[in-house]
Model the fold of this input.
Amino acid sequence: MLVAVEGERVQGYAYGLIEGNDFMALRGPAGVLHDLMVDPDDRGLGIGRALVEAIRDQFVRRGVPRLVLSTAARNEPAKRLFAGLGFRATMIEMTTDLA
Done:
């Protein structure tokens, strides 16, 4: 977990793990970015970008071959951020409501 702090105030965090093979996701070992959060008051300052770059650097130092993440299909700001950092769409999750 990496945390962006100004003074004593948390501006955001990134949480990721190194995981082995994931047969449900059809992928080999990877760094997985499970959560990225930036305080709404601090968005647009480059904090999200800096956190993703820092966690990516941590995985590179550990020899991890890839970094994966999931984002909501309608989260256009997140998709732009991640695309700008070199991420590409590789899987599409589809959902149906059963109720």
